[in-house]
Specification:
The structure is a single chain. The protein is of the alpha+beta class. The chain has 17 helices and 21 strands. The protein has a seven-stranded antiparallel sheet. A hairpin with a 5-residue loop joins β3 and β4. α2 packs antiparallel against α4, α13 crosses α14 and α13 crosses α16. The chain starts with a strand and ends with a strand.
């Protein structure tokens, strides 16, 4: 059942109750929404590490009280020693890229944080050191990945030795030691003992990552992508994310009359017929901006939109990863839309045992075909499935996002159109029945309540329990709200005063 919680001060929606509580506590201590987001992100890295731990990446959009919107890119690049144009999909240890999350959080703090850095790390450190009851999300994640985790000594020791079940108390003493070092100096993750441990262990498991790759890395800040949809302003994340694909879908839908039934055949058909050319254009043109032929500031130009409309064929890149998204709104005017991930659950399946840091497999997002912006290459950022939305009509502002890997642009387009075209409340928009087409398998994934059309490029219609897990926050006149997805195990939190 969809519902929102409301406050006059702050509202938080995350996929794990400890993280929502931690964020609320930071607000009560006098922190701002950015402080709360950093603390929540680190808490999520401890409590659901398979979805977004320290060995992964982090992105955020932040609207400040003056109306400016900032973008933080905490994604890493491939190792310098990675062979260029390897001609196959990177898998497991060879797909490890430099983890950008810690640097991304620290850059966000330097830009907009207000409390001391160590104070924001402290709650996650306590969770890792003293323990917490495992959620169904973590227990089920470990159980589903048990065979893969058993093949890596670090993962086996970290996740399987304790026989985790829902509600059992789990501790990560090695992760606690890492967080102690990060609280003192976040660059220790990239230049100190943590970096050396990661490079040494990952190399022993078959990764090309080196201490030099880690030392050379830092996160980036920049401008978000911005467009309008039927009078609403919509912000998304620029490349190396696929955020523009959601905006391309919206711009193609804007030229159509919205079908009457939000769950009917014609609405699903309209979204998929916009998604197919948008994904096709994405696969040929997006990647690390340094390798793109189309400048980022031209991605939403009429010329590019005309190219998207003319695309023919079926995109080949799809599939769902696993991610955790969270949203925060505070009455002083901040809205935070943030997302973090290892890509697949437990990423590469490689966990450095001393500090219990599970490393991503984000390099598997590179396209094995040569000559594309997203082709495999050294010191290159892969096209990232992570992205998030902030949208507003001049009075009301919403932060929206979901898990879902390559399916995410379709989900974002559905959330926005649920609100704008169908008048849904923000909590209804993320909890309503969903659908998504997976180009990798050709399957149309539909939840209960969706009427699915027959389309030439849909190989089969597959009924599923859920398509991703979403969260959302709202900043309205005089109040803020938050909502978690009925599909997940999260819980919203508020600060009353």
């Amino acid at each position: 059942m969809s519902h929102a919680v409301w406050s006059r001060r702050a509202a938080i929606a995350t996929e794990e109750p400890h993280a929502s509580t931690v964020a609320a506590d930071i607000i009560r201590r006098g922190g701002n929404a950015v402080d709360a987001a950093i603390a929540a992100s680190l808490a999520l890295a401890v409590t659901i590490p398979h979805l977004g731990g320290l060995g992964g990446d982090f992105f955020a959009l932040v609207k400040d009280p003056k109306g400016s919107v900032y973008f933080i890119n905490g994604s890493g690049y491939s190792p310098e020693g990675l062979e260029a144009e390897v001609g196959h999909q990177l898998r497991g240890p060879e797909a490890i890229t430099v983890p950008g999350m810690v640097a991304g959080l620290h850059r966000l703090w330097r830009m907009l944080g207000s409390l001391e850095w160590a104070e924001l790390v402290e709650p996650a450190l306590k969770l890792a050191r003293d323990g917490f009851p495992a959620s169904s999300t973590l227990a089920e994640g470990i159980r589903a990945a048990e065979d893969r985790l058993a093949r890596d000594p670090g993962s086996r020791e970290t996740y399987l030795a304790a026989r985790v079940v829902e509600g059992s108390v789990i501790k990560f003493p090695g992760l606690a030691r890492a967080l102690e070092l990060i609280a003192e100096d976040p660059r220790s993750f990239y230049e100190g003992d943590i970096a050396e441990a990661i490079a040494e262990y990952a190399s022993s498991r078959g990764s090309a990552i080196s201490i030099s790759d880690l030392r050379s890395y830092d996160a980036e800040e920049g401008a978000p992508l911005r467009t309008t949809y039927r009078g609403w302003v919509v912000y998304e994340m620029p490349p190396n994310t696929q955020g523009v694909t959601a905006l391309h879908i919206l711009k193609l839908l804007e030229g159509l009359e919205p079908p009457n039934d939000p769950f009917g055949v014609e609405r699903v058909r309209a979204v998929l017929e916009a998604a197919a050319p948008a994904y096709m254009w994405r696969d040929l043109n997006l990647g690390d901006p340094r390798y793109m032929k189309v400048p980022v500031d031209r991605l939403l130009s009429d010329e590019v939109l005309d190219e998207v409309r003319r695309m023919r064929g079926v995109p080949r890149v799809g599939g769902a990863g696993d991610t955790t998204y969270f949203a925060i709104a505070t009455a002083d005017g901040y809205v935070v839309s943030a997302i973090q991930s290892l890509y697949h659950p437990f990423g590469s399946g490689v966990t450095e045992p001393r500090y219990q840091i599970t490393l991503n497999d984000r390099g598997s997002c590179f396209d094995p075909r040569p000559g594309l912006p997203n082709s495999v290459g050294p010191r290159k950022k892969p096209l990232h499935t992570l992205s998030a939305i902030i949208m507003g009509d001049g009075t009301n502002w919403y932060a929206l996002g979901a898990s879902g890997g390559h399916l995410r642009p379709q989900q974002h387009a559905v959330f926005v159109t649920n609100i704008v075209d169908y008048g849904m409340r923000f909590d209804e928009a993320i909890n309503a029945p969903r659908f998504a087409w997976n180009p990798e398998t050709g399957e149309l994934l539909v939840e209960e309540g969706i009427k699915a059309p027959e389309l030439p490029w849909v190989k089969r219609i597959k009924r599923v329990r859920r398509v991703g897990v979403a969260n959302a926050a709202a900043l309205l006149t005089g109040s803020v709200g938050a909502s978690t997805d009925r599909r997940g195990a999260g819980a919203p939190a508020i600060v009353a005063w």
